Amino acid sequence: MPTTPDTTDYSRDVACDRYHSQRTSKRRKHVIVALLIIAALLLSGAGVAYAYYQHVTTTINNNFKKGLDSDLEGALTTTDSPTDPFYVLLMGTDHSLGRDNDGSTDNLYRTDSIILARVDPGNQKVTLVSIPRDTKVDIEGHGSTKINAAYAFGGASLAVSTVSKVAGVDISHFVLIDMDGLSSAVDALGGVEVNVPYEINDPDYTGYLAAGDQTLNGEQALIFARARHCYDKVGDGDLIRTANQRALIGAIAQKLLQEDKVTQANVLTQLSSYVQTDLSVDDINGYAAQFSNMDMDSNLYTAVMPTEAEFTNGVWFNIIQQAAWKKMMDRVTQGLPPTEDEEVDAGTGIVTSTTGDGGNQNVTADSSVSSLSSESSSSTASSSSSADTATKSGTVVVKNGSGVGGAAKAAAKTLWKNGYTVVSTGNAESKDYKTSLVVYADDRFAGEAQAIANEIGSGCQVKKNDGTYTLSGGDLLVVLGSSDVNTD
Fold this sequence. Notes:
Structural class: alpha/beta
Helix content: 25-40%
Distance between the termini: 60 Å
Shape: globular
Largest sheet: 7 strands, mixed
Radius of gyration: 23 Å
């Protein structure tokens, strides 16, 4: 039986120094994003390689079932048809099978990554909603405490029933993966390519990674997935970490899709020693076939449960914003993206929700909008003195009206790097805009609107909103036209 934990074991430390001192001696590694399972088992096409491993199917299935409590089956709900949408609870833990017998964990394992996934085989769509580990919930038999204590209190079955109640949906499958499994999968793939948004430099806890695009090996992938407190001066470390984890899993899934059948099967075999799940190899085989042609750019949606931080009696909690949470789950249940527009954290530029890649799928935007450069800014004849001295205090919403897939995301990234506060992206009501447009809410943002227009291109128009445009919660609206998008 797992030792009953004190809820303070699941608290966010108030001071970084305290956090580091607690971790220096043991350096207990945090978890991976559990979407690895959706990526590796459902999206990788590993099922087509099943013939290569028929002789080890029994071993793999036995590995999957190890550690699952006997009550799990009763907590899960089956679907009527193999093409019906269903929910999977994906969890990552610092549990290491190699430490089961060394006494270092006292049989107490934390689930620091919690993702509720909606899988829609009929439409080849997957939606991932990250649930902050410090979310305050009622756990049956244990009262009000952090959601990541549910697994430690009662294993997979209590974790499933707790998340099911919080989200208001039935859950059909459970997957848990430990840190060693992530490292093993990445190394088996020969590394994966990701963009590290900020330098990670924390020798006492995770390690070091430079910022920028790079290929990560297994150990580096763990650093990327675990890092949190090194971001304290930048913004919300948990928010950045969950975004990093989702980015990493997307990279793993993409790499798996490119591999040959033998490599796919090899990765699955290695993962089976680090995974606990009710799924069998036959289940995986069936789902993999259904998702073999999934368009990950258009049909993979992500979001984070809306919460607010609260410090109570010396403990940090994430308090669910119930109205926003209900709205999000209503959209998810309907098969829609969790949010209407892609959302970006204003403080860090981290994408917190994605809505798929709209626009013309036959054309892909370059990594930047062609005119968003210092060269175009300096050469724009129409720049005014107010634009030159404009502060960058307004919140910016970027909409893609060009018909070029990915243009809004690319422009938002460039604007953010240039100091603007981009809060969301999405598609405009029309994709037939030829020229770009910047709309501002009131005169306070006129100079900033002109400065943005100067960066986009000489033909970009600037308008004060007369009620015609919906600014989607921003102070400035940027609508990209096709003449300002680089499609090379």
